[in-house]
What does this fold into?
Amino acid sequence: MTLAPPAPPKALIESPWRTARRRLFSNARSVTGLAFLTLLFAFCIVGPALSPYKQTEQNLDNKTAAPSASHWMGTDPLGRDVMTRTMYGGRVTLLVGFVATGVAVAIGVIYGMVSGLVGGRTDSAMMRVVDILYAFPFLNFVIILTAVLGTHPFLVGAEAWVLDKLSVIPALKGAATDLGFNASFLLLFAAIGAVEWLTMARVVRGQVLSLKNQEFVTAARSYGAGTGRILLRHLLPNVIGPVIVYASLTVPGVMLLEATLSFLGLGIQPPASSWGVLINDGAQRMDTAPWLLLFPGVFFSLTLLSLNFVGDGLRDALDPRSIR
Amino acid sequence: MIRFLLSRFLQGIVVILAVFVITFVLQKLSPTSPFNGERNVSAEVRATLESYYGYDKPWLVQMWRHIKAFATFNPPDCVKSPGRGVGEVISQAFPVSVALAVPALLIALAIGIPLGAIAALRPNTFDDHWATATATLGICIPSFVLGPLIAMIFGLYLRWFNVAGWHDSADWVLPSLTLGLIYSGYVARLTRGGLRETLAQDFIRTARAKGASEPVVVIRHALKLACLPLLNFLGPTAAGLLTGSMVTETVFQIPGLGQHFISSAINRDDTLAVGITLLFAVLILVFNMLVDIIQAALNPRIGLKS
It folds into this structure.
C-alpha cells in the first residue's frame, strides 16, 4: 500500500506585505498614480536618449516656436527643445525630491528612535524641541540659507569632492555632468532635508514607544540581545511600514519646496535646470509663448498628484487603522 | 487662563530669541559682507557703512545691538537703504499683504468647507469622489503654476484685471483667488476628514437616536468637533498669509511682505530679512495661541495645555 504524498500546506495566513500589496493594487487612484509615475520615469530617464536634441542645443533660427511635429512641446527663446528640457528638468526634480527626502527620513528616523528608546526626560525634552520647531518660519530660514550660501567656498569644495567620488563609476559621473550637477544640488539636499524631518520623528517615536514594551522585545532582551540588536532586528522592521508611508507623503512636499526655491531663483542653478526653473522661465513669457509654462507646469502638477495618490494608497495599505 | 497666557508668553520669548539667533547666524555664514557686493563703492564709504550698521563690531556685540533694537520696537535701518527703517518698510508692506490674505482666506473657506462637507456626508459616492479629487487637485497645483495661469486667463485673454502690479483697487483679486483656490483644497480635505471622524462617534449616534434631524445632528453636534483639525491648520496658515505669500506676491509683483522678504534675502538686506522673519514668527505664535484657546472653548475635553 502506498501512501499519497501529503498535500503541501496551504497558506492560510497572508503575509502582511502581501496584504499591503494587494490593497495597494486594488486602489484605483494609487494604481493610476503608479502608472503615471512609471511613464514619467521612463520619459525622464530614457527620453533624452531617444530625443534628437540635446538639453543645451540652441537653434536661434527656430526660437520661441510653437509646438510642431519636430518640436512636440515647442522651443524656448534660445531655440532649445522644450520637451528635452522638460525631461532633464524632471530628472533634476525627481533626484532632489528623492535624495532630500532620504536625508529628511534619516534624520527623522534616528531622532525619533533615540527619543522613543531612551524615554523619560530626554524623550520629553526632545519632543518639546520638535513641538517648538513646528512653529519656526522654516521657509524663511531655507530662503536665507540658499541665498547666502549659494557661493560659499565650502560648497564648491563639496561639489568637487562629490564629483571626485562619482568618477569611480564613469557612467555615474557622465550622468551627473550631463545633468549639470553642481553645488546648488548639495545645498538643496541639505537645506530641505534639515527642515522636513519633524513629522517623521514624531511618527517613529510614537511607533517605538508603543513597541518597546511589548512581549517580543522583552523576550529578545531575556535571551540577551543588546540594544543595538533589538533596534535593528526587532524595532526597525516594525517601524518600516509607517516610515514608508510618511516618506512617500514627504516626497511631494520636498519637490514642491525645491521647485519653489528654484522658481524664486534660489534653488537649482545653471547649467542644470529643474521644473521650477522651467516654470519660472515660462511664467515670464506666458504672453508670447504659453507652452513654455504649460508643459512643465502640467507635468509637475500631475507628478505631485500621482505622488499624493500613491502616498495615500500606501497609507491605506500599510496603516489600515488610520482614517483619512 | 492667566497661567496659560503667561507660560505661552515666556515660551514665545524663547522661540523668538531662537528664531533671531538662527536667522542671524545663517546670515553670518555668508562668505561676504552685504557691503562687499556693490560695485563703485570706495573702501572709505564701505567702512563708513559698516560702522554705521555695526558690522565692524564682533558678532556678539552686533547680536546684542539687534536684540535691543527689536525688543524695544525700534528696529535698525535697512542695510541696503540707509535712513529707511525696517519698521517703516514693514508698516508699508504689511497692509498690502493683509489686503490679499483676508479675501484669500474667505475664498478658501467658502469653497473648501462645502466641498469637504459634501464629500463627508455622502461617503464613497460619486459626490465624495469628485469632491475629493477636486480638493487633491487644488493641493497639487503649485501656486507658481496656478498664479501665472490665472494671470494668463483673466489678465491677458479676458483683460478683466491687470496681469500684475499694485495700482488699481481691484489688483487684489487675482492673487487672492490664486491663494484661495490652493488653500481651499486643504480646507476641503480637513473638513472631510474631521466630519467623517466625528460622524462615526457615539454621541452622534445618541443624537440621532433621540430623534434629532440630520441637519441638526451635523450643524449642532458634529460641526463643532469636526472643525478642530481645520482650526489647527488655519492658525499657521493665517499667519503665513498675513506675512505675505512669497511666491504669489512675486508672481503678481505685489509689494507686500513676502516679496520684500525674498528681495531682502537675495540682495542681502540682512536687517530687513531678520525683521520680517521675526514678525512671521510672532504671528505664528499668536495664531497658535488663539487656536489653542478656541479649541479649548469648543471641546472642553482638550483644555488649555501650558
User: Anything to note?
Assistant: Chain A has 14 helices and no strands. Chain A has a mean pLDDT of 80. Residues 82-118 of chain A form the longest helix (37 residues).
